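Entry for the shared binder. Reason: the reviewer on the internal report wants the predicted structure included alongside the sequence.
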Amino acid sequence: MEDKKYIHIISHTHWDREWYLPYEKHHVLLTKLMDRLLETLESNPDFKSYHLDGQTIILDDYLQIRPEMREKLQTFVREGRLHIGPWYILQDEFLTSSEANIRNLQYGMKDAALWGGVSKVGYFPDSFGNIGQAPQILSQAGINNAVFGRGVKPTGFNNTVSEAENYESPYSEMLWRSPDGSSVLGILFANWYCNGNEVPTDEKEAKKYWEQHIASLEKYAASPHMLMMNGCDHQPIQTDLPEAIRVAETLYPNIEFIHSNFNDYVGKLAASLPQNLKVIEGELRSQQTDGWGTLVNTASARVYIKQMNQLSQTLLEKVAETLSAFAYLQGGDYHHHLIEYAWKTLMQNHPHDSICGCSVDEVHREMVTRFEKSKHVAEMIIDESLESISEKINTASFKKWGEDALPFTVYNTTGWDRTGVVSITLDVKRDYFSAGVNKQELKGFPLGERTLVDDKGTEYHCKVEDLGISFGYDLPEEKFRQPYMARRVRLTFEAEKVPALGFTTYAWVSSSKHNDNSSLIINENEMENNYVNVKINENGSLTVTNKVNGRTFEDLCVYEDTGDIGNEYMYKQPNNEQALTTKDLIAKVNIIEDTPFQAAYEIVQEWEIPASASDLLDKEQKELVWFTGRKSERVEAKVPFTIKTVVTLAKNSKGIDVKTSFNNQAKDHRLRALFPTDIKTDVHHADSIFEIAKRTNEPSQEWTNPDHSQHQQAFVDVSNEVEGLTVANLGLNEYEIIRDGRNTIAVTLLRSVGELGDWGYFPTPEAQCLGEQTVSFCIYPHDGKDSATKAYKDAYQYQVPWSLKQTGLHDGELPPVHSFVQWESANLAFSSMKVSKQSGDVMMRWFNMADESDTLIVKTSETYKNTYESNVIEEKKKSLHVDGNKAIHVSVRNHEIVTLGFEKKLI
């Protein structure tokens, strides 16, 4: 290590768009900060540069109020004095989907490039834990470093390297490696991102300041190039920093103080690091700490926010983008501007203090509106795409059943063939207002004897509900709106083997139908199909048998309730409290659906739970008693807590679908669903960001938090070589593997708390989540290692809604059953299909779920100029050979994220 030392001081502010103040109040403060910043940059050439917190949305927010400042902003970005990007917003990595993390990077880098420069730093200053695939994502985007504040304990006892094996790294610098082998230089804010805050200009004060700070820097530094962050949360700019640096240079002539930026600092740091940096692997979730620092229970704060996010993300990335790509391949428009608007509106809900549910109530009220706005745009894109594709499908073959045949198409936008129960509302007859409406004729219009068929004539049993007459309207592009009244029916049936990334067309036709009296119901509390048997026990729990291997799981879906005297960040059970469960209740069980293709039971459990925590909790909150030291308990008084659970089994499903509803009138508590697995294993797997993360059931020795909750995206799985249980979810991001001798999966359904927490007293009564709640999950028993991948694929499909569209009888270039892309691989999961705005090429992405390499084979029905390997920011990397079968073969490393580009179709 060279003798000379360098201290890089980076001016910044960590800007939470919304948190302990609602967005618009922070917005006003941001405007003041930005005004002051531009004034400082303009008037003081010695104020070298400013890091704008790694998120380009700050510029958009500022220009909403100060549009006249655009040119000045652009000048400072191009001059390298204002450093922006690479993200659009600073997201929570674990609570936003894989594709949302990628869109955040794509839009951030695109916007930064338009402004004139991007800060090539993987900036995660305050993420509540860091995803294992971040190094691979950053590397693919051309970023060779990651800067983060949480997830790693930096050093051993007394900063001795000899103790380093007990911790991730003895230094603030380390190599961070993803499961695929990609690595970046990891830089931990060992002294947080405000370690260079408010540098004194007074010589006496400066001497004391620097003695302390230099010692802290050297304690963790592996290099003579050390980092000081001059700023903090919503911190005003230190306009006299150049003078403070001059004072420091006078005091320490052997140290070079540099008013720096991340691009320069990382370059100097990388060239001066020793060879013996520790390598840290995968997820950074504070595994080797006391377990409080990554604020994991934000995964269950305000569950309704997570549910809305899961729906909004899925509609955009798994439905709207995919259907728009299908339409684009058939000559339709791909509405980049609308998709970007929907994504950016959604991503305004993705900052860590927003999606984590750990802000004041006003913040989360506004989030609900943003979710709705994004969803509404996605729904418009979806409907237009469905219309565009459906009108090109040849449905003429259904005319053989008569001109009154009613065709419709079922679309599968997932990456695998799909079977499942779907519903569609059909207009049997329409009367437009312009031609006159005869309501009596519509009401009496004969439906006749009809059946459901595909284009081959195969009949499908369906449930028909006569909906009577309803109002509707068309919005033609060339004329005024066209209102009508329609006679409607709802058809429900099981669509079988709809091709991946494609569709199957059906029609409701005039025909005598064959009666099918088969049933999945065995008796008043038991149902089964060819794969599973489900018994509902007296207490409402489920006994599930995997008929393939005979393995039975007992006591599934018992509900557990405990007190919670923590806050939006962290769960804290009252001392010495025993959990309440539904195990000793007597449930009411009713059959509510019995068709040849689906059966369902409703289970009603009348329960009572404590009304709230005692008054002591309110006192402790107001007096800022840290949550781990609180003494409050739950009150004796009880409130009713009725749980209604609908358990559904479809004929060809390997999963048991569960929907749970309750009216929460209790405060200060947590509700979970329990799934004892009784599977012998020390590890489990959870869906994370482009990764099936392997995690230990037991925490490390350093972990003192009694709760060992963790993040999930689509599912959690406990399995070994011969048996397994996967529990999928819709927007339930928190689970725990309970150390009870049964390896019980516990999925959090609700957490009710009354304060934000953190640095002050911020009451949040709406975080109690009072009122009606509904949650959904699906249980997949499987045969262990060899069938776990199939369960994972089913769990991914469970996330994605079907798309259906009624159409007319017409010719078309597309066949009634079609797949736009066919692909094969044992271990890859399909992630997205979209169109690149830069190139107009169709982009498709997969990731390898397994710890072994694989081959991806892709065939398409289209003709392309070129196919190529790309990366997460959609750059061309390598052309691919198309063989005589119009297939491409791509070798994929273990856990690799692979993106392919298909250059514009030849017309």
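Summary line for the report: Residues 156-164 have pLDDT under 50 and may be disordered.
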